[in-house]
Amino acid sequence: MFRDDLQVARCCKQLCRRLEGFKGELWKANPNDYGPTKLALKHRERSPWSSGERALLRATFALWNPSNQCDLGDLLCSLDSEALSAIGLLLVSIANGPDAVDEWLETERQLDELDVAELEPAGGAR
Question: Which of 1, 60, 107, 123 has the fewest CB atoms within 10 Å, counting from its CB?
Fold first, then answer.
């Protein structure tokens, strides 16, 4: 399971980083200010995003509050392989405890850094 609510928020924020086509912060993960933003709440109800993006947001809300529903079939049919893999690996990490969740967060952070590095022009940013 999770260490605390802040660790859950960090996982939710990381999953939301995978959403494309949005403007603004969807999840906060600061020690004294964490949880879904107004923008995330708005898009949970109505969103112009793709079915995969909406499914990922629903999964994030289910992670944040297990009383929220998330359909496994919807995830399997809607998510791309990278997002589905991230959720699957996160679930395994949750089963293995808070330290494993920290490792998942670190791996995801490193993948984000690789993605940014691939976008920089050869020779570094100017």
Answer: 123
For the chain, how many helices (H) and strands (E)?
6, 2
Strand partners, 35: 28
What's the predicted TM-score (pTM) here? 0.88
Query: What does the pLDDT average to over 113-118?
Result: 70
pLDDT tens readout for residues 52-98: 999 999 999 999 999 998 999 999 999 999 999 999 999 999 999 99
Is residue 125 included in any domain, yes or no?
no
Residue 1 contacts residue 91 (beta carbons within 8 Å):
no
User: If phi over 0 gives left and psi between -120 and 50 gives alpha, with beta otherwise, what is residue 7?
Assistant: alpha
pLDDT of 24 reads: 73
User: 11: domain range?
Assistant: 5-119
Averaged pLDDT of the chain: 89
Which residues lie closer than 8 Å to 45 by C-beta, 6 or more apart? none
Q: Which DSSP symbol is given to 18?
A: T
Q: Is residue 83 part of a domain?
A: yes
**Total domain count, the chain:** 1
